[in-house]
Each structure stands twice: as C-alpha cells, then as structure tokens.
Write a structure and sequence with these properties.
This protein has about 250 residues and is of the alpha+beta class. The protein is built from eight helices and eight strands, in the order βββββααααβββαααα.
C-alpha cells in the first residue's frame, strides 16, 4: 500500500522494547490502525507529545501488504485534549469508549462516519465536562447503529404498529420493543416514553443538541445507557473492562 497520510485520533499507546511504542489510533481514511513508533520513548523523540491519548494528529505511516502493524514516520499534533484527559472522570469515561472502538472497528476498514462521530463526541465532552453521561450514551448508541446492531424502537416488534409518543412498551430479550397488547409476559422491562424519546433523539441530532436535550433527563440517560451496555455485552459475549469500572464507580 505504501505511504499513507491521514488525520487520526490517538486512542492509546504502550511500550515495545526499550525505546519504541505501539500506537493504536482511529484514522479518518483508513479506519483503526496499529503502528510502531520507533524511538518514541526517547527524551528527544521526533513524535513529542503527539502520542498522548485523545490527541488529534496528522499522521504519515508506511504500510506493507499483509502486515497489520504499520511503520509510523511522522505525527503532527493538531489538537490536544491532555488537560481534559487529566481529569479522572473524563479519562475513565473515554477509556471505556476507546475500548468499544477497538472492539467494534475492524482494522484498516475505512469508516469516515465513525471517525467524525468519535471526534465530535470528544470535542463536545471537552467543551461540556458535565455532559459525559449523555456523550457516552450517544457514543454507545451510534457505535451500535453504525455496526448494524441497533434495535428498532419505533414499532412493536410483534404487530409492527408504530408506538405512540406517550405509550409504555416492553423490552424483549432481543432488545426490541413490544406494545402492551402484544406483551405475553408482564415481567418485561418497561420502557417509558421518556426513555424511548432519548433513544430516538440521539439518532436524529448532533452530540451538542443531544446534550442540551438531555439536561433534564439524566435519570433516563443512565437507564437507557444500561440497556445499550447490555446489548454491547451480548454482542461481544463479555462485559468490557470499562463497563465493569463504570458500574463499580456508580455504586460508590
């Protein structure tokens, strides 16, 4: 494939040998990329602070056919979120979102829509530090939608009737909804109109507008996020490490 030049978001990095690092990033044009940054651990590294997590960079790398790891040649820092990442809640939440990206984004599979969604979520959270719960829900929902996993909450899964705006519905084991007339069990998790509106609105508006919309619905945001995490766990066949940390933190 040769030399590639693209914008990217640094997700994480870790040590390789004495002086090098492996860097994981989401790129605008090439999807999820893992690469070797030679000499990155040296004091006078040419990469400087460009390898910090949640940094927006312009990256050049060399990719050989049939090799997953690329060779990073140059990184120019475009935007740093170092100050935000130094805040424990921000770091904890976005470390979880990074974990979702790594799980759901196939290596070297271009997805500009996923990149733009991730970037704008990061920007919105940095500008609105109190919006982390809403941004996490927005991200969880969109990573499921872009992957083709998001259930339809507009219609009853049984009779296909469009659910009314103020109607309660039951959550099935497959995470689709059924209306009251079609519920065979009264033990279903009840989805309120507020929860369904949060779910539907997140698919129609930008992160900034979603944050504004959910200001007075934080209880509903947490409830819908719990359901989305269950869907994610069901798809992956496991709980993510980040989900376990967030769940434990919420109980403190």
């Amino acid at each position: 494939m040769g030399l590639v030049d693209t914008e990217g978001l640094i997700l994480k990095s870790y040590s390789l040998a004495e002086a090098d690092k492996i860097v994981v990033l989401l790129t605008q044009n090439e999807g999820l990329v893992r690469g070797v940054a030679k000499g990155a651990k040296r004091l006078k590294s040419k990469f400087g602070g460009g390898l910090e997590p949640f940094s927006i960079v312009q990256i050049s790398y060399f990719q050989k056919e049939e090799r997953e790891l690329v060779s990073i040649r140059q990184i120019d820092l475009l935007k740093s979120y170092f100050d935000n990442a130094s805040q424990p809640r921000f770091l904890q939440k976005f470390s979880y979102l990074v974990e979702l990206l790594v799980e759901f984004a196939p290596p070297h599979d271009p997805n500009e829509r996923l990149y733009r969604m991730t970037k704008v979520c990061l920007e919105t959270a940095a500008e609105n530090p109190d919006s982390l719960e809403s941004i996490a829900l927005y991200f969880e929902l969109w990573i499921l939608r872009l992957g083709g996993y998001l259930p339809n909450w507009n219609n009853c899964n049984n009779c296909k009737r469009e659910l009314e705006q103020n109607e309660n519905s039951g959550l099935q084991i497959n995470f689709h909804l059924v209306c009251n007339n079609c519920q065979k069990s009264r033990n279903n998790w009840i989805i309120s109109p507020e929860q369904r509106q949060i779910f539907i609105t997140a698919q129609k508006v930008s992160p900034t507008k979603f944050v504004e919309f959910t200001k007075n619905y934080q209880k509903g945001v947490k409830e819908v996020s719990i359901i989305l995490r269950r869907i994610i766990s069901n798809i992956l066949g496991k709980e993510t490490v980040g989900e376990k940390i967030l769940t434990a933190s919420s109980k403190l």
